[in-house]
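Aim 2 progress. For 7-cyano-7-deazaguanine synthase, the working sequence is reproduced below.
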Amino acid sequence: MTETTDGAALVLFSGGQDSTVCLAWALARFPRVETVGFSYGQRHAVELDVRPVVRAKMAALDPAWATRLGDDHMVPLDGLGAIADTALTRETAIEIAADGLPTTFVPGRNLVFLAFAGALASRRGARHLVAGMCETDYSGYPDCRDDTIKAMQVALNLGMARRFVLHTPLMWIDKAATFALAAEIGGDPLVELLLEDTHTCYLGDRSQRHPWGYGCGTCPACRLRADGYSRWMSASR
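Predicted structure tokens for this construct:
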């Protein structure tokens, strides 16, 4: 990994697989890395419970990472959950809606996240924002598209008179390649951390342990993770 000394990074960190790999990616590159999470009334709020555990275990994986890993910030965004009538904020079915988007799509979520992250990064002196959006192997969310992220970088820089750089290390790779990237950055210990401690399941189920980690096993997030893990394991043999 190529290290940079070009400022600090702020990672949008949910406690899930993708954001954890992004955190490892940032820790391998930047001299100071802080994290930000968002509580928006999500149905799978258990992800907020695993965040401090994952952060602590990440720091224990590498002495350099322990030195670089800085403060964590939790931002309450209850208003977003209050106005979002989706399967991630309500006890409703996870399916494809009439508009062709999954009912798990929370309109504006990533736009709001990036706006708040930019404001926080400005105060914390962090130039780089790192997030786990991906349009290669995802659920069809329009705010995960590369064009959206590029537009947000322009908007943040214009609106805050800053020179932020938005990094999306997973944008063009699928879930199998995400496992491979984790193995490349942190080896077997990081992969094991992903399996045992991160949370992806939309229903917040941590009662069932599968080879790929905890989850209901049937929601779209679980199916993507399970398929990616299976394909990565097959390619690794």
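Residues 3 and 29 are 4 Å apart (CA to CA). This observation will guide construct design in the next reporting period.
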